[in-house]
Design goal:
alpha/beta; single chain; globular; 12-stranded mixed β-sheet
Length: 340
């Protein structure tokens, strides 16, 4: 791709006491990444230099940019988000590391909203220590949905042809049943189907919907949500011409590998979808936020404080998040301007 259309990909550094900086440095030490995009890290030189030195990463280099409007092509760029020497306490979340992760995310999001970036890859945050006046959300997904004025979004986990989305996200399990409505399910299915078509190029996507209760409710014996809410929603979507099937008992669905027969799976709640997904694709999985006007991906793991600074973090998921963001951005660019 010509430099004129080189993808500018923002990278928020995440919690600096977790593995975010490590997987970023390990990923971008491979200079072949620069054939796909111009990476823009939001953080500080001091943090990157400490991590690079600890990893003995001779191939990781970057250029400090004076602003996002003055990036060096074919180089990793750094936008400085704080100028003090941030103390690193690997494995321990601190108010300082939370503030740094927020400063990185806010600066990158601002530049993305202004049109200076084409997409964003977010390294893991700590959902507790990042809380502040500007961030009163349970996670990245909810923050970005609000920041980019999207009426609704969808957490979509991706690894190759395996795609698992969730109707509800970061909420207590006891609240899930009361949250489920036909209207919510229709909105989530609509986002999922649209993303499969527009972001993944699947012309007639097939979606399997999981039941909420054991055995998908056993005809109401083990809970009525499957019969009264989920099944009627599926029928509505079928009447509109969509290939939507279910509800399937979640255990048997994954146990019999039925996910291989569809383009995506819609789970009712976080762990129902993420436990089988991470079992199947823990090191390669990507979290994509569907339904936003911008492209945002992240690795499907957390801060992993238990292995921070042990230099054993696997960067595969972060690398895959970067590549998926590039793929979706390129699809959107070609759709908007076929001459690119």
């Amino acid at each position: 791709m010509d430099n004129k259309y080189k993808i500018k990909l923002g990278i928020s550094i995440g919690d600096t006491n977790g593995i975010g900086p490590e997987v970023i440095v390990k990923t971008l030490a491979d200079n072949r990444i620069l054939n796909y995009c111009t990476p823009v890290i939001y953080g500080s030189a001091a943090v990157l230099n400490k991590v690079r030195k600890a990893l003995h990463s001779e191939h990781f280099n970057y250029q400090q940019a004076t602003s996002v409007q003055d990036l060096a092509p074919r180089k990793v760029n750094l936008i400085t988000c704080w100028d003090h020497d941030l103390e690193l306490n690997p494995g321990t979340p601190t108010p300082e590391s939370g503030k740094a992760s927020l400063d990185s995310l806010l600066t990158a999001s601002r530049d993305l909203k202004a049109g200076f970036l084409d997409g964003l890859v977010t390294a893991p945050i700590n959902k507790d220590n990042i809380q502040a006046e500007e961030f009163k959300f349970p996670g990245h997904t909810e923050f970005l949905t609000s920041y980019f004025d999207a009426p609704e979004s969808l957490m979509l986990l991706v690894s190759g042809d395996l795609r698992v989305a969730t109707v509800t996200g970061h909420m207590p399990l006891k609240d899930v049943s009361g949250k489920l409505t036909e209207q919510l399910l229709i909105r989530k299915l609509t986002i999922l189907l649209s993303s499969l078509r527009n972001d993944f190029g699947i012309l007639k996507p097939r979606v399997a919907v999981l039941g909420l209760n054991p055995h998908a409710g056993e005809q109401g014996l083990l809970g009525t949500e499957d019969v009264e809410i989920i099944r009627p929603t599926i029928m509505q979507m079928k009447e509109r011409g969509h290939l939507v099937f279910g509800p399937y008992p979640a255990d048997g669905f994954f146990g019999m590998q039925q996910y291989r027969q569809v383009d995506a799976v819609l789970a009712m709640y976080h762990d129902q979808g993420l436990i089988p997904f991470k079992t199947l694709a823990f090191e390669s999985g990507v979290n994509y936020t569907a339904g936003l006007p911008i492209v945002r991906t992240s690795p499907d793991h957390g801060t992993a404080y238990d292995i921070a600074a042990k230099h054993i973090a696997n960067e595969t998921s972060f690398r895959e998040a970067l590549f998926l963001a590039c793929d979706i951005i390129r699809k959107r660019q070609l759709e908007a301007n076929p001459a690119v």
